[in-house]
Write a structure and sequence with these properties.
With 263 residues, the chain is α+β, with helices and mostly antiparallel strands. The chain contains 5 helices and 12 strands.
């Protein structure tokens, strides 16, 4: 159905998982049926005339829009979303947008994300495995301050365990000494630092490797500042403020031989 006040389609909340007090995963079902998007793109949802863009974690074949959302207490939209119950609806813009998608011309994909910044990669990997594509290798680095913020770590680890020749997953927490991380026994440190230590041993071909970054602006800029002088060209996509969610800014770094223009 469409909203008479906005003439926009609606999407209904069908599932909600509260991860922490300020993080939740929701699944929205478009009322008009299938919503077309490419893995890595974002949709635009709204309440009471306030709209924001959210990257989609689900793959196109799943039939729902899965979102990983961070609460911003003084934000315009997310506090309203935190009050939603199963069966409530949001407006949904008719088209997905974004060019932060998988470049199939390269075969090595290095993906860095912090907290909600992991979302595009989850969609890309789910779709990749569903289609059974071959010939690509993914190195996924996920960072957070606390273990309970990693959220998709079990799913990504399961992917890595089942497809070790094509997917490697490295999660890390940056505050290992704090009580919330008492049970953490994995890598520690900021994800951009962990990524550097792993990259030194990977010896990936620059003409066949794409580095994706999505999440905290400081992480993105640090990767960019070090990669560009090393012969990588940056391509930046700004999703907008979106209640300051951590996935708002994304940069992909691609070797000069593999550059394609934005369109």
């Amino acid at each position: 159905m469409t909203s008479s006040s906005t003439n926009l389609s609606q999407a209904t909340l069908v599932e909600r998982s509260d991860i922490t007090d300020d993080l939740m995963v929701v699944k929205m079902r478009p009322d008009e049926g299938h919503f077309n998007f490419k893995p890595g793109q974002y949709c635009t949802l709204g309440l009471d005339g306030i709209e924001r863009a959210y990257s989609i974690a689900s793959a196109p074949h799943e039939g729902v829009l899965e979102l990983f959302v961070e609460l911003v207490p003084d934000g315009a939209l997310t506090p309203k979303m935190w009050s939603m119950k199963i069966g409530d609806s949001m407006t949904l813009r008719p088209r997905a947008k974004g060019i932060f998608t998988m470049n199939t011309k390269v075969h090595h994909h290095v993906m860095l994300g912090t907290v909600t910044g992991i979302v595009p990669y989850v969609s890309i990997l789910r779709s990749h495995l569903y289609k059974g594509d071959e010939g690509h290798k993914f190195y996924v680095f996920l960072g957070a301050s606390y273990e309970d913020e990693l959220t998709y770590d079990k799913e990504l680890q399961d992917m890595s365990n089942e497809y070790p020749d094509s997917i490697s997953f490295i999660p890390t927490v940056s505050r290992p000494s704090e009580e919330r991380n008492t049970n953490w026994n994995g890598p520690t440190g900021r994800v951009n630092t962990i990524y550097e230590s792993y990259m030194d041993g990977l010896d990936l071909p620059k003409d066949d490797t794409l580095i994706y970054t999505c999440g905290h602006p400081g992480m993105i800029e640090d990767v960019r500042a070090k990669a560009v002088p090393s012969g990588w060209l940056s391509r930046k996509k700004d999703f907008g403020k979106s209640d300051r969610n951590r996935l708002n800014i994304s940069i992909s770094l691609i070797s000069l031989d593999q550059v394609t223009r934005d369109h």
